[in-house]
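call fold(seq) -> C-alpha cells
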Amino acid sequence: MGIISWIILGALAGWVASLIMKTDGSMGAVANIIVGIVGAFIGGLVMSLIGKVGVTAFDIRSFLVALLGSVILLAIVKAVRR
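ret:
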C-alpha cells in the first residue's frame, strides 16, 4: 500500500473508531488519521497473534482490521486519561 492509501484508510478507520468510542468531538482530522494508522498497526498485531493476516491492501477486510486496532487504541487512551 502506498502512503496515500495509508492516509485514506487511517482517516476512515480513525474517524469511525472515534464515532464508536464517542471521542469525535475532541479529535480533529489529523488526530483521526494518526489514530487510524497506529490502529492499523495494532490491528495487524492482534490479527497476527491469532494467526490471521493484518492490513494488506485497500479493502474492506483491511479497513475492519484498522478499525479494530483504532478502537483498541482509543479505549486504552480513554482508560489512561481517567
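The two ends are 36 Å apart (CA to CA).
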